[in-house]
Amino acid sequence: MLLHRLLASSVWPSLQPSGASLALAVSTSLAAIVALAGGCTSFAFRSGGRGQAPSDLQDRKDMVALDAGVLQMGWKVGEPDEFPQHKVTLAPFLIDRTEVTLGNYRRCVEARTCKAPQVPGDGWETTEQHPVVGVTWLDAKRYCEWVNRRLPTEAEWEMAARRGHDGAYPWGGKAGPGTANLRGGEDGFERTAPVGSFPRGATKAGVVDLAGNAAEWVFDWYDATWYGKSPEGDPTGPEAPTGQRVVRGGSWADPNHLARGSARGALDPNVSNNAVGFRCAATP
């Protein structure tokens, strides 16, 4: 049954009941199927002793500070789960300027705190400046806590992507060449790119890769009807588990419209995918 469900969701999974989804790539099924067979491919990391994150990883110099503010969350012409638009008020927070890199995540694995990412073994990008992908929601949460941070809430993520402009995309304009690493090789990358490779796609505050490259886990449980009942102040999503966590931002495998700042996706938190990574947030 599990095998059938994973195969059915391999390339264009229906990640939520409404039909709005991020086009997560084929390794969701590939990695899980190989794991079931007992031979899962993973990066080869050197094991070390368990410990806390080094001080350079806990340093917040590479985070972007966002002041308290108000966001009209959702989109007037989006997918059904982006309705209704609703007012959200957020306290100040910090968010990583880039997605967490493979190099930094590697150090968490070597400290025996994080699990090695699960990716195909066909020459997948393993350079340290690429975003780590192939990690579950639990892996992402564990890393952020190791560096004394946390996963951003869905509302914080959208605030970071949309603050300061009325456009659909994080940079405030239309999708176009040089703004994001999305489906196809026209942008110069068949799969992930080193983080920060698309400075034209940065937000006004300087956060990069919120559209494309790797889709990103956030804290909240997913509910397709959540926007109709979300509280206004600092929402953190449904309290009761729904079986899926929210994924944001679109990836190298997705078309433009799934990289909009309001587009929502969802995935089983125990599943990893070669198009999904994460970034961390923190409270000042």
Rg on CA atoms, Å: 17 Å
- H/E series: HHHEEEEHHHEEEEE
- State the fourth-level CATH superfamily: paralog of FGE (formylglycine-generating enzyme)
Q: What structural class is derived from the secondary structure elements? A: alpha+beta
Give the quaternary arrangement of the chains: single chain
Dominant shape: globular
Question: What separation lies between the terminal Cα atoms?
Answer: 45 Å
Largest sheet: 4 strands, mixed
Strand residue content: 5-15%
What's the rounded overall pLDDT mean?
84
Count of the separate structural domains: 1
Spatial strand arrangement across the major sheet: 7-6-5-8
Enumerate how many helices there are, as a single number: 6
Describe this structure in words.
The chain has 6 helices and 9 strands; from the N terminus they run αααββββαααβββββ. It is α+β, with helices and mostly antiparallel strands. The strands form 3 sheets. It has a 4-stranded mixed β-sheet with strand order 7-6-5-8. The longest helix is centred in the N-terminal third of the chain and has 10 residues, at 27-36. It starts with a helix and ends with a strand. It has one domain (2-43, 63-282): paralog of FGE (formylglycine-generating enzyme) (Alpha-Beta Complex). It has helices at 2-8, 27-36, 55-58, 102-110, 137-146, 154-162; strands at 63-66, 69-73, 86-90, 93-96, 215-221, 245-248, 264-267, 276-278, 281-282.
